[in-house]
Amino acid sequence: MDSSRTLCVSLAVLLLISSSSAGTIQRALRMNQALLTFHNQLPEEVQVSFTSDYCYKCLYQHLASVKPNNNNASVMISTQFSLTVQVESGGGATALCRWSQTYQEGGHYSVWIQGPDPSGNHTCSHSIDRPPNNAYLPIVAAALLLAGSALLFVVVPFILRRRRTSPFLKAVCCRDLQNSVDHDGAHASETAAADSRGTRQPRLLSLDTFRGFSLTVMVFVNYGGGGYWFFEHAPWNGLTVADLVMPWFVFIIGTSVVLAFSSMQRQGVSLLQLLGKITWRTVVLMLLGFCFLNYSPRDGLLSWSWLRIPGVLQRLAFTYFVLSLLQTFWGRKAIPQSENHWWNPVQDVVLFWPQWLMIFLLETLWLCITFLLPVPNCPTGYLGAGGIGDNGLYPNCTGGAAGYIDRWMFGDNMYRYPTCKKLYLTVQPFDPEGILGTINSIVMGFLGMQAGKIIVFYKRKNGHILSRYLIWAVILGISAAILSKCTRDGGFIPVNKNLWSLSYVMCMGALSFLLLGGMYFIIDVRGWWGGQPFLYPGMNSILVYVGHSLLGFYFPFSWEMRFQESHWEFLLQSLWGTSLWVLIAYLLYRKSFFLKI
Question: What is the CB neighbour count within 10 angstroms for residue 44?
Answer without folding.
Answer: 13
